[in-house]
Amino acid sequence: QVQLVESGGGLVQARGSLRLSCAASGSFFRINAMGWYRQAPGKQRELVAAITSGGSTNYGDSVKGRFTISRDNTKNTVDLQMNSLKPEDTAVYYCNADAVESVRSRWTTNIYWGQGTQVTVSS
């Protein structure tokens, strides 16, 4: 089992910055990829950014050039640096990870989600 805990959300003015952090803990062999998704009220959950253990990244179109994802494989953490924030970035941000575990004598990869952290960008 993997537990993901996010931190760093809050209220910020437009054009400001925030840094979100997520820490993974529990029993697992390794985490292959970690990422951030967000969901605004009445909207679908969307990809913000993702990063593999090797450092390859993928960003949602709406945040390219403004957000940067990074991770520390030793600490099992992933951060999201958010710059030039816009009111439309307001959402609950969720950390996710796919972890390799041993379940009933077989290796399997499971996806986990954090509880979410609120980011509100005022105009």
Quick overview of this protein structure:
The protein has 123 residues and is mainly beta. 0% of the residues lie in helices and 63% in strands.
Write a structural description.
This protein is mainly β and 123 residues long. The chain contains no helices and 11 strands. Strands 2, 4, 5, 6, 9, 10 and 11 form a 7-stranded mixed sheet that branches. Strands 1-3-8-7 form a 4-stranded antiparallel sheet, with no helix packed on it.
Write out key terms for the chains shown:
123 residues, 0% helix, mainly beta
Record the SSE blueprint:
Blueprint: E1 2-7, E2 10-13, E3 18-26, E4 30-39, E5 46-52, E6 57-59, E7 67-72, E8 77-82, E9 91-103, E10 106-113, E11 117-122
Radius of gyration: 15 Å
Strand content range: over 45%
User: Which word captures the global form?
Assistant: elongated
Contiguous low-pLDDT stretches (5 residues minimum) are none
Structural class: mainly beta
Largest pleated sheet: 7 strands, mixed
- The helix/strand series, from N terminus to C terminus, equals EEEEEEEEEEE
Mean pLDDT: 96
Can you count the beta strands? 11
Number of helical segments with 4 or more residues: 0
Range of helix content: under 10%
The CA-CA distance between the termini, in Å, is 40 Å
Subunit organisation of the chains: single chain
